[in-house]
Amino acid sequence: MSILTVSKLADELFLRPIVISMNTLALSVLISHVMSANGSIDWKPITICVTSDLLAMGVDHLKDKEEEFSSDCNNASDQRLASWFIYSRAFLAACAGLLALALFQCPISTLFTTTAVVTPALLWTTPIRFKMFELISRRLIGMFGRKKHQPSTSAPVLVIKRIPGMKSIFNGIIRGCGIFAIVLSALSGSGNLTDTLPSPWSVVQLVVWSTVNRTCHAIMTDVRDFEDDTKAGVPTIPVLLGSILKTKVILTACHMLVMLAFIENSYIMGSCLFATALVWMLGKHSPKKAFLFSSHSQSLFIIWYLLTKHI
Length: 311
Hints:
Mean pLDDT: 85
Distance between the termini: 51 Å
Number of helices: 12
Largest sheet: 2 strands, antiparallel
Low-confidence stretches: none
């Protein structure tokens, strides 16, 4: 087991969530800009998307690192390491405060949309026990059937992250469709929603491009962790396929299909080509920080679009 250090905690609890959430910032700014009736950028849905992303990633990383910290008895006396968990909780509390402030100024529909998007992400690694369904079934059996002594069995447990092959797909749907849904609900509630998106964008382009891009990036992080996931029995898509090469071929096909479907949009085309290049440049032996480029295969071209419109 690797040794927990201050630099590793700073990286996992702060650097990675912040850097990855910058893609959420770029995407939510783009969607807010092109879907706004007057071309303005509404800070409220952008704040909701970014803080929600930071909270989801931050809580997940905090749980993992706290388990790693408590598993080594030598860490108990290390106050430097312990202090980073306090900093992380303070950072997450600040994010929650900003999220609440933005939601307070949005219509109630945005609150419901955000809850639907964020809840699965916050419950990413939480075991969900179906005790309620077990109790209901037992009562029904007692009411309508003969009462027989049945051996007690543990209630089924669901962990979203452990559903075979679905972790990356859920990640892409939450980040891709979720960001669009939050911005849409905020703009429609404020009456600032446009009827027609500016060229070359469309609703279908934004949703499909974002969802596929985020899903493929999540699968690329699974490629990075292929050996560890195989040993631990984590059912990611590369592990289920049993091959990094097959995974990369599928990812390339996904990016190329999106590019061909929206070939008239040069920004999507450039993003897909860049993402495809990263698929083949990055591998299981690449440093973790190199995979952060994959998380921004959209961001660079969103910035390019925004600069061309405002310069």
